[in-house]
Amino acid sequence: MDKEYTQLIRKLFPFLIIDKGNENLMNIAKIPAGRIVFQEGEACEVIAFILKGVIRVSKIGKSGKELNLYRVSSGESCILMISSTLATIGYPATATVEEDTDVLILSVPVFKKWMQENHELQRFVYKLLSERLVSVMTLIEEIVFHKMDERVAEFLLEKGEGVNLLSITHDRIAMELGTAREVVSRIMKDFQRKGWIEMSRGKVKILKRDSLENLCNVT
Questions:
Q1: Range of the domain at 130
Q2: Residue 79 belongs to what H/E stretch?
Q3: Which residue has the higher pLDDT, 199 or 17?
Q4: Of 5, 55, 101, 167, whose CB count within 10 A is highest?
C-alpha cells in the first residue's frame, strides 16, 4: 500500500491496524465525482472508509424527488452501508459521489470479523450511528417546521445589518431561533458550501448578501 495512504489511514482510522499480516485485506479505490456507488435495494458487498472526498446519501421517491439524508466525508463511513451489511439487507437509499473520492475498502467477512474483535472499531460504529441518528432527526425537524433555512438567513441579515462580519456561535443562533444547534450547523454548512458565507471559530462572514435575501424572499 502507498506510504501516503498508510499514513492517512493511521491518522483517520487508527483502529484499523496496518501490518504485513493484514495489509492485503485492505484495498484503495478512487471513485470519480458523479458515480452512484449504491442504489436502493442493492446488496453491500464491501465496507468503505472515506479517506478523501464526499459521498452524498439520499432518498429518491417514486416521483423522482430527492431528499438528501446526509454526507459522508473524510474520516467517516456510511452507517446505512454498515447496518445493511450487518443485517444482511439491501441498501435503503442512494449513495452518490459528490467529489472525487478515495476510499479504503474491506470485504464484508473481514469487517464482520473485526467488528467482533476490535473494540475501537465498535466504538467508531456506535458513535457514527449516534451522530447519524441526530442528523436524521434534525432533518425531520427541518421538514416538519419548514423554512428554517430562511429563518437562519433572516437572522444573519438582521444581525449583520451594516456589517458583514458577525461574532456569533451556532449555539447562540439556535437559542435565538428556538431550534437545535445541529439544525443551525447543517444549514450554515450548506450556506458555506454555496459560497454565501464563510465560517471560522465564533465568527460568520457574509459573502453574498443578495443570495441570502433571495432565499428569504422565496415563497
A1: 3-144
A2: helix 79-87
A3: 199
A4: 55
